[in-house]
Amino acid sequence: MKVALLLECGRKGPDEQVYSYLVNKFCPNMKIQAFPLGNKNNLIEQCDEVCETLVQSGYDKALIIWDLNPSFPDRRAKLDCVSEVAHVRKKLTQRNIPEDFYKLICVEYELESYIVADGRGLTAYRQSLTTHRMPTFTDRKKKRDQRDPKNVIWNYWGEFNETLHALKVFEQLPDFNRVYARNPSFKRFKDVVDTWCKL
Question: Does the predicted TM-score (pTM) go above 0.90?
Answer without folding.
Answer: yes
